[in-house]
Amino acid sequence: MRQVIAPLHLLKIAVVVLGVACGGMQQASAQVKLADKLAPSSLTAAPRKAEPRVIDSIVAVVNTDVITRQELDARVALVEARMRQQGAAMPLRSLLEKQILERMIVDRAQLQLAADSGIKIDDVMLDRAMARLAEQNKLSMQDFRNQLEREGTPYARFREEIREEITMQRIREREVDNKLQITESEVDNYIEAQKNAPQSQPEYNLAQILVRIPENASAEQIAARRARADEVAQQLRSGADFAKLAASYSDSIDALKGGELGWRTTDRLPQLFVDAVAQLNQGDLSAVVKSASGFHILKVVGKRTQSVLKGTSTAAAPAVEQTHARHILIKVNTIVTSAEALRKLTDLKQRLDNKAATFEELAKLYSNDLSASKGGDLGWIYPGDTVPEFERAMNLLKPGEVSAPIETPFGYHLIQVIERKNQDVSQERQRLTARQAIRERKLEEASQDWVRQLRDRAYVEYRLEEK
């Protein structure tokens, strides 16, 4: 494996070194020409050697890729600009630099895994994501672009950030979200607990500082990480700014946002967090608590009361329209472009219109979804169960009709509605709501654990001090 990786790795390093050498040779050549013009013709003094000029350098090696000084400086400048705009307390430049480099290492490892898995966000999908962002901010695309530029964020750089964010979201969905297991007994216990819960429950806006424990850590490593967490906790008790220390020391993915998790009800927080802050008021700090990911310090940024709908009675629940549908999915990746996926589904739609094949037959042959083995059958779908693009197209169809190819974040689909029904499904919906709440509670810790494992398994070589 090393013999295959090494040439790629050395090639990227050679490009940086070659840039340094070329810079030095160009500067030396310019000085020789200048000396020829100024020196008398009778003199033949040798020109002075030019000092090498470093164009760029490598600050970290991540598996088969490198992070350069220019990339790190650009990211640091961007984060500093955003923190100043938000009025956040600025950590020391050296601490912020190390924190951002670690974030870039984790991101790079995720992007490499996504690329190896064939996940690719093409320009068409990216353009639609950018349009949705502009729409959410109630701006036209041009106004959205102008606002970014006014805030000091180059539009092209922001666009690539969004591409990377979507790519990492896709790989996390595949590696974490889709692998979460929720048992029927967990759902039963959740519903029973909700029956006995008060009519209102606290909702928290928490911030966290996470001191990560490496995978397969020794007792000495765990003790060292605990000591680090205790040191940070002591600084906080002495009045240090939480957001500043989060940006300086936290290993959590939300570190550069001051560690804030946003408003969540207790049923959508890890139970460990709920227990740690149960007796705390706004502004209070928790003790250091340990999870599988590491040591956490929590701050109650905000606390309010949220009304809870029990859902224990089913008598007055309205009827809900359900749709029984199936689909054929062609995913877009490094092998299949958007144009090719669209062309393939257009051909399949024509075959269906000509009755040359059944939907079930074509789904089994061509669909890139787990439902392919069932002829693309997705079962009964409730409102909100699918992404908006899919649901809008599905709702326009009559039973038996097949849609034109439509695009979603998952790829391109042909959708067929089999039948619809309206019935009181409050009990079933109650279980679905419970399942979603349990999933959200588990997802936080599962995502942190997956990122930790991915980071610890990556080959990383630091060269940050080499400037």
UniProtKB/TrEMBL annotation:
Signal peptide residue numbers: none
Catalytic function, reaction form: [protein]-peptidylproline (omega=180) = [protein]-peptidylproline (omega=0)
Principal place of residence: periplasm
KW Repeat (keyword) present: yes
Keyword field: Chaperone, Isomerase, Periplasm, Repeat, Rotamase, Signal
MF terms in GO: isomerase activity
PpiC domain span: 201-302, 320-419
EC annotation from Swiss-Prot or TrEMBL: 5.2.1.8
InterPro entries: OMP_Chaperone_SurA (IPR050280), PPIase_dom_sf (IPR046357), PPIase_PpiC (IPR000297), PPIase_PpiC_CS (IPR023058), PPIase_SurA (IPR023034), SurA_N (IPR015391), Trigger_fact/SurA_dom_sf (IPR027304)
Subcellular location: Periplasm
Function: Chaperone involved in the correct folding and assembly of outer membrane proteins. Recognizes specific patterns of aromatic residues and the orientation of their side chains, which are found more frequently in integral outer membrane proteins. May act in both early periplasmic and late outer membrane-associated steps of protein maturation.
Domain note: The PPIase activity resides only in the second parvulin domain. The N-terminal region and the C-terminal tail are necessary and sufficient for the chaperone activity of SurA. The PPIase activity is dispensable for SurA to function as a chaperone. The N-terminal region and the C-terminal tail are also required for porin recognition.
Protein name: Chaperone SurA
Species of origin: Actimicrobium antarcticum
Taxonomic lineage of the native organism: Bacteria, Pseudomonadati, Pseudomonadota, Betaproteobacteria, Burkholderiales
Gene that produces this protein: surA
